Amino acid sequence: MNKYENNKKAVQKLVLDKSVHRDVYINEEIFKLEMEQLFPNVWIFIGHASQIKTPGDFITSKIGNQPILVSRHRDNSIHVLYNRCPHKGVKIASEPCGNTGKFFRCPYHAWSFKTDGSLLAVPLKKGYEGTGFADTAASKGLSKVENVKIYKDFIFARLSKNGPSFEDYFGDSLSTIDNMVDRSPNGALEIVSSPIRYMHTCNWKMLVENQTDTCHPMVAHESSAGTAVKVWEREKVNSVSKDTPIAVQFYAPFMSPYEFYESTGIRIWPNGHGHTGVTGSIHQDYTDVDGYMEQMVEKHGDEKAKQIINDVRHNTVYFPNIMVKGAVQILRNFIPISVDKTLVESWCFRLVGAPQKFFERSLMYNRFINAPTSIVGHDDLEMYERAQEGLKSDGNEWVNLQRLYDEDEKHDVTEIINGTSERQMRNQFNAWSKYMTLNMSEKLEAAE
Amino acid sequence: MKQETIIDFIYEEAFLLDTMQWSKWLELYDKDARYWMPMEWNQTDPMMQQSLMYEDMLLLTIRVERLSGERTFSQKPKSRSHHILQTPKILEFNEEKDLFKTWTPFTYTETRGDILERFSGWASHDLKLVDNNIKISLKRIDLINFDAPFSNIQLFM
């Protein structure tokens, strides 16, 4: 069973230049190592500051499989805490969000904690006198996550002591978050709604890879987007308005030909980040919203306003497990549950100060594309489920990722490439291998 | 019109869904009708609060045609549905205003291949008369666990 634990070389051998071994998707030990190594070693998105506006507000989240608590303290500072009581391990908060008042109180034995995590009080204090309680981890309260970065209200954390700095890790990829924030005339985003939650019986990486897979939409979504185009073409003669409904504007571009995706490009960044839609994207032709351009010009000036609005990046993957879509203000969080189970939470952001039409569109896009009731979602999940099953086949243990591979291609670089390349997937797996093994100790020869 | 006629109409809708008579099912809806699945408790706004579905006849027609598409792989094999309805409660019966409202607790089962999923909730219908035929102007599905992470829901509740 311990084929990969403390065995850097075995893990690294799963990722080759042009292919990856199926164990990255179906091996339970690999999944366990992802939770112990990969997720703690890198910066994980855990929430947005607009979800915890006032002191006492909290949200619960996860890094890998570890429960996390994010709280707003009375001095307005944000604290990221391990969500477990230092006494018996009970989760301190179990709801997705709420307000705890001045302190958290464990429901089991009433240990209480300030909203910065420090211990406030323990009942029957006398019982701990003379026991050396002050020297224990328990006396420190809720364990704090030390490495926290709040970037333009996006809250990220890294659990491991040793790992890349936030700036080194994300680098220029933050430009997608910048663009989404800049789309608000007030320069602020807000979460005001629960995410759409969609359970997938597949490995989390299949979903992440699919975000920059531009060779599947016209094939896998022929059933949904293709039917939408066909039905609209037929029905529009009976329609009162001849304007293409926004629903069809959302669906139809999925059927764009290979040439469209080839020409709009992919940009890759170091550490596994990258995005589709560099010079244009499936989001480029939506009907304008009245009054918005004027607002943006007033705030940014003509040139910058146009630059922000015309930067219609398609999907930006922030490795390992989120995708940001600035043009429709959506963030998808691919939360690993087990080797073959992934919870997808898709959040919409409100552009503060912008016409409400944008939020309406964002919510609409979310239910059309990211919901368990979405016909586009049905197409994709079917493919992931079939892959999860198909990979059990011993006929071929390797997954091929060599589309537009160049033997001179380098890792951890910034480049713009042909939009049908599978290079972003190779980029992700290079980062995967690097951060899986970053803090892994080498197995001793004698132990083998 | 009799109240029983309304109740029979609600049962007829479930019958058409469970026997997969999709085009006849669509004909029960008014041309401006909406099919709404909220994602919040006591949700009041289908557009500015997150819904799972809020679809007009164009979108419902796309769904129905997709189900029989040659390249609709998520329907190979096909899904089937099963409705159990409690007797619909008539909330409004107003012939003068041409407005009839019902509320129907249900248990819904959807199956595909070896997977079987069960849902519970309440269906609310707003009905009206069009050329003397009852038509649905709004169907609203409130699930008891509207915020749970579901897997695919491909048919209609």
Walkthrough of the structure:
The complex is a heterodimer of chains A (448) and B (157). Chain A is α+β, with helices and mostly antiparallel strands. Chain A has helices at residues 8-12, 23-26, 28-41, 166-170, 175-182, 204-210, 217-220, 222-235, 246-251, 258-264, 292-300, 302-310, 357-369, 375-390, 423-437, and strands spanning 19-21, 44-48, 57-63, 66-72, 78-82, 97-99, 103-105, 112-114, 119-121, 147-151, 154-158, 189-190, 196-200, 266-268, 274-276, 316-318, 322-325, 330-338, 341-348, 350-351, 398-400, 415-417. Chain A has two domains: 46-151, Rieske Iron-sulfur Protein, CATH 2.102.10.10; 190-435, Naphthalene 1,2-dioxygenase Alpha Subunit, Chain A, domain 1, CATH 3.90.380. Chain A contains 15 helices and 22 strands. An eight-stranded antiparallel beta sheet of chain A has the order 13-19-18-17-16-15-14-22. Chain A has a four-stranded antiparallel beta sheet with strand order 5-4-3-6. Chain A has a three-stranded antiparallel beta sheet with strand order 2-11-10. The longest helix of chain A has 16 residues, at 375-390. In chain B, strands 1, 2, 3, 4, 5, 6 and 7 form a seven-stranded mixed beta sheet that branches. Chain B is an alpha+beta fold and 157 residues long. The relative contact order of chain B is 0.22. At the A-B interface, strand 13, helix 8, strand 19, helix 13 and helix 14 of A face strand 2 and helix 3 of B.
